[in-house]
Hints:
Shape: globular
Oligomer: single chain
Number of strands: 13
Low-confidence stretches: none
Mean pLDDT: 88
Structural class: alpha/beta
Distance between the termini: 103 Å
Order of helices and strands: HEEHEEEEEHHEHEHHEEHHHEHEHH
Amino acid sequence: MTVKTDNNRKLSQLLTVGIMLILMLATIFVSGEILIRYLTRNDTNVIQVNGIAIPPLHPPLQQIRDSIENYKTQINHAPFIYDATLGWNNQPNFNEDGIIINSGAMRTRHEYELVPADDTLRIAIFGDSFTYSAEVPDDQTFSHFLETFLQEKGIRAEVLNFGVPAYGADQSYLRWLNDAVNYHPDIVILNYSTRMSSRSLNIFRVISSPETILPFSKPRFYLENGSLQLVNSPTIPLDEVVDTIQNFENHPLREYEYYYDDRYVDTWWRQSKFLSYVTESIRNTIVNYVGDSSPELIDVNKAIIQAFADDASNNNAIFVLGHMAARKNLSQTEDTIQYLQILTQFADQYPFIDGAKVLEQVEKANGWLPDGHYNGIGNQIVGDYFASQIIDCLDDTTCLPARFADNPVFRITPADS
């Protein structure tokens, strides 16, 4: 009788605990649902909390219309313009708010002849907003400090900045093919940052980053029998962007848009904004701190790097890979930075400058802007480090261009200074 009573008591306790747990979870769920819906009550386009877009996602068509209309009415003041080959590019001859773009759409106040001077080392740099140096004036850019430090250390050099915000590695490569190659650089540096690799699988930035103000599409490489093939080239004209996205589910480009994924599927459980927020938060954490290990992402980026390097070599330029490390890389180890694993696979073939080596220095000097880009101090630290690495590479002749092999006249002697 006692044993039976004890068993009943234990069963009753278990049921009580179970009920309390269910009630607690239900309370958390209901409270979370109310909170998320309250926080997003005024959202008319993309529903976001703490910068996280909550699925099911729907392309923000009105936002895109507004962006296109604003672009058309303010085109003379737009820092970026539509480009049928690249998707978008820097606006030539732009000069506002400390941002200066020359006639060749480079981030600089200087103009350059197509052929460099006989005694000057010409370096062309490619990348996204880190290379471009977003939100800092002309005299605080990465390219400004790179050029300045090289000259101070005895190298007569000029740095041509072909960086463009929000670019992928694919657009950087296309800019080389369609533009920069004509300037005959001696050294070409392709700088990777946190999102450069993933953008190479993207066609519409608004699909991968719904909060964007860029309404443009971009070209996209894919692999067919190991060979790079290009789609969306020329890119979709602005007047056709809204209709294309509105009917994207059935569009031929749909299969090439990596980020038009299950987040755009309206499944039954996504009716809960709270569950969608939790699952998307977990997904973002994994992507941000572990990286996307998609085989296609890795293979396409490796193919782009190899094609870029081959073409640079065919045009008598030394190809260098660079890493413009972001603040979040401080909390990562090398083996968890997916795109860095791609770069290090080429370390035996090409010079590699890893900006992560001075990341702690940037952090200690408070070298960051609020949005995560380098400020002037950060660009100065990274520019100085890249300059020292390039000089070492010149000294061991790995980066010495053929035209200077017998007489490196770019080195400044006391008589020159």
